[in-house]
Amino acid sequence: MKDNRFVKGRLKSVVYAAKGAYKLVTTEHSIMVQFAVGILVTMAGFFFKISHTEWLIQTLAIGLVLGIEGVNTAIEKIADFIHPQYHERIGFIKDIAAGAVFFAALTALTIGAIIYYPKVYLLFQLN
């Protein structure tokens, strides 16, 4: 039954979203890897004392990858539910969704390189 009260309805939505995020992180291997990378990059941010702007961009990049991967996973699950056997068009749809993850990951990798390459380079120059 739908709850028409605004605040209570929004709180329920947040609970469902948190449950979904938990399911993603605990059941999907690609999300597990990307979540772990996000934690490592966050730790690197503290180690290298990245700027406020770098934190904002890095956080957006992590969220972009995890969000797009979540959408990709949902598309794959729906496609497998609708058509469990291999089908060329379903495969095409799944490939496109995976391609979106690829673009997000390349973007995040580029951002990481721009933020961390100079810092790592400087660190090795000092040693």
Folded structure, characterized:
It is found in: Cell membrane. By secondary structure, the chain is mostly helical. It has a domain at 39-126: Helix Hairpins. It is 88% helix and 0% strand. The chain contains four helices and no strands. The model has no long low-confidence stretch (mean pLDDT 93).
Notable features of this structure?
127 residues, flat, mainly alpha, lipid biosynthesis, Helix Hairpins, single chain, Diacylglycerol kinase family protein, 88% helix
Give the arrangement of secondary structure elements.
Blueprint: H1 6-27, H2 29-48, H3 52-82, H4 88-126
Helix pairs in contact: 1-2, 2-3, 3-4
Radius of gyration over all CA atoms, rounded: 19 Å
Q: Which H/E pattern describes the elements? A: HHHH
Given the helix and strand composition, which structural class is it? mainly alpha
Poorly predicted runs of 5 or more residues? none
> Under CATH, the topology of the domain at 39-126 is which?
Helix Hairpins
The proportion of residues in beta strands is under 5%
For the report, how would you describe the main beta sheet? none
| Helix percentage | over 70%
What's the pLDDT, averaged over the residues? 93
The CATH architecture designation of the domain at 39-126 is Orthogonal Bundle
The separation of the N and C termini measures 64 Å
SS elements, strand count: 0
Question: Looking at the structure, what is the overall shape?
Answer: flat
Question: What's the helix count?
Answer: 4
What is the CATH first-level class name of the domain at 39-126?
Answer: Mainly Alpha
Protein name: Diacylglycerol kinase family protein
Binding site for substrate: 69
Membrane topology: Multi-pass membrane protein
InterPro entries: DAGK, DAGK_sf, UDPK
